[in-house]
Amino acid sequence: MNVNSLRGTLMVTLAYVLVGASFTANSVLGDYPYAGGQALRYGAACLLLLPLAGRGALAPLRALTARQWIRLAVLAGVGMVGFNLSILLAERSAEPAVPGVFVGCAPVVVAVLAPLLDGRRPSRPVLYGALFVAAGAFTVQGWGRTDLAGMLWSLGALAGEVGFTVLAVPVLAPLGPRLLTLVVCGLGAVESAVLGLVLDGRGFLRVPTGAETAALVWQAAVVTVVGFVLYYTGMRRIGVERAVLLSGMIPVAAALTAPLAGTGTYGAAQAAGSALVGAGAALGSGVFGKRSAAAVQDDPGDEGGIVVHRHVPAAGEPYESRRGDDVLGADPLTAQEQPVPGAPGDGHRQSGNVVGEPHAPSGGERLVETGGFTQREGLGDDGLR
User: Which keywords does this chain's UniProt record carry (predicted)?
Assistant: First the structure.
């Protein structure tokens, strides 16, 4: 695992830990109107992100197509508002562990769905790792009583968890993590307000108590602003399948913090489940295997910042100096050049993964120097997202 991937993994892990550790805040908001609380949370997060968006934020938004705006609206509706509503409704007739177990299956679904949508075959290490993570989440949480309605709403929560990640992939590149989070939070606030007016009328909002205010501030500033930006930044670095693998940290973080909040204990089952989650994440991220530069092709979503330099001739062609070359002219050490099969891609079709420079010749092969090149970086469970 290179430095770029390690940073991305740590970012996604921290994002999921923040979600898993937010159960105390969620319990404090149990008596606050659901839709109103979500509208306040996402609206506050959007306002907090505005100063961080930068002066040039309007240009990417103006360039978005109608189809991309619809995708963003669906992302906010399904992956945020719908996810939280499904969790809430599931827990009316099911114990909290039931939707937690369903959401814990998200890595398996994404490990299969994301490659198929991208025209690739699912990666076996990622799929096996996802199965370990799902088993670990089940072990940590156990299984509880439920009925058909609880099962269906839990399935809806799973769809929301998958949609939060998969729907974001095509719009993450043009917007970036911060602007994407800002936009979906703004849309989520509007959608929550509309839902509140439909379900509760004018009573969907009320003045929160001191404890409710603190919980809303925590969810808006920490879980949403920090957590979402970290998650999307890390996902852009390591890819969607490997990012969702780390969702097993949600029940693990919840189990670790439960004793501190006096809402549970951390025993042998939680320790065993945590170990399974860790093993699955390590297996899916390739920690147990050695990878060469050529293995980038087999590691979709790993943004290694592969650089293709300009003025590099195709295989078998001599170097010809061009206007703009430095005063030293062509590199005379041709013995140091070796043909390799093209610039290695990651098969993810995301911009930012392979950095190309202008004037790079087309063709199946390029010559690169063995001396090396410079890398450049492109840059819950039942917890309410």
Answer: Membrane, Transmembrane, Transmembrane helix
Please check whether residue 226 lies inside any domain of the structure: yes
Domain of 368 in residue numbering reads as 303-379
Which band of pLDDT confidence, cut at 50, 70 and 90, is reported for residue 91? confident
97 and 59 in a single domain? The answer is: yes
More confident residue, 242 or 308: 242
Domain count along the chain? 2
290 found inside a domain: no
Q: Mean pLDDT across the stretch 124-141?
A: 81
Which residue among 250, 285, 320 closes a domain?
A: 285
50 and 128 in a single domain? The answer is yes
Residues 125 and 270 in one domain: yes
Looking at the fold, whether 95 and 224 belong to one and the same domain comes out as yes
Considering the entire predicted model, what is its pTM?
Answer: 0.69
Q: Helix 83-93 vs helix 34-53: angle between axes, to the nearest 10 degrees?
A: 150
Q: Check residue 314 and give its pLDDT.
A: 43
**pLDDT, tens only, 269-320:** 778 877 887 787 777 766 555 543 333 333 444 444 444 444 444 444 444 4
Mean pLDDT along residues 52-79: 90
107-127 residue pLDDT tens: 888 888 888 888 888 888 888
Secondary structure of the chain in HEC code, one letter for each residue:
CCHHHHHHHHHHHHHHHHHHCCHHHHHHHHHCCHHHHHHHHHHHHHHHHHHHHCHHHHHHHHHCCHHHHHHHHHHHHHHHHHHHHHHHHHHHHCCCHHHHHHHCCHHHHHHHHHHHHCCCCCCHHHHHHHHHHHHHHHHHHCCCCCCHHHHHHHHHHHHHHHHHHHCCHHHHHHHHHHHHHHHHHHHHHHHHHHHHHHHHHHHHCCCCCHHHHHHHHHHHHHHHHHHHHHHHHHHHHHCHHHHHHHHHHHHHHHHHHHHHHCCCCCCHHHHHHHHHHHHHHHHHHCCCCCCCHHHHHHCCCCCCCEEECCCCCCCCCCCCCCCCCCCCCCCCCHHHEEEECCCCCCCCCCCCCEEECCCCCCCCCEEEECCCCCCCCCCCCCCCC
Domain assignment present for 384? no
